[in-house]
Amino acid sequence: MSGTIARAWAVRRRDGLELGFTDHDRELGFEDITFRPDSGLSARALVQGLGLSVDNSEAMGALSDAAITEQDLMAGRWDSAEVRLWEVDWSNAANRQLIFRGHLGEVVRSGAAFSAELRGLSEPLNKAQGRVYHPRCSAVLGDGKCRFDLSKPGYSAEGVVLADEGGRLTLSGIAGHDPGWFEHGRLIMLSGAAEGLSAMVKADVAQPGNRRAVELWTALGIQPVAGDRVRLVAGCDKRGETCRMKFLNYLNFRGFPHLPPEDWLIAPKVNR
Question: pTM of the full predicted structure?
Fold first, then answer.
């Protein structure tokens, strides 16, 4: 059987799009996936240690598959895609073994090629566990710990792009919100080539005429154009005062605002 062994990859994006690749010279098919040999995706040697050691591998490819477009790569649509790798007998695909399961790290493009780190199922174990005691809130606005309903009136707004200068957008149709209301919030593209992409808001300035100037922490992978629709979601700076006054949600605040500052530990103690 060793002379008929090939490798087959399945890569599934977060939006459900799934592609199959193989290093065999003909198509393979199993698990309702067609694995194509001319798709331009390969992998360096897969190194998997025993126990919980980190998998070390890299997926590499060329922009030769119609479904792997430069536009999607730049937009981050392939980031964190699920990856499965089999060793399969190409003469009988029923004889196969799953040897890797994980996901792609950040996809990096270089010229006409791309590469991405492969991260195994043990990767989450490298993250810090437990709760952090900090004056600011540890929850994400709107998640199960925060419990704030972002669909409440006034906490989101939709508008139209007038211009985009490398992550500095001018929007129209958004009015009635205080300056800075959307700082630390999120901008979500609702139409255009960048539809579905989002980014965190660094600065938010209200302008006359129902206009809004928004600066993003990181520019979108696909640049919006005039006429594209967007949604802005209110931001939270994690402070207790913001939770209480802006969101009226202090009951669910997940920080510890009364913790003494770090320099309290080294401050001279006064005998009483």
Answer: 0.69
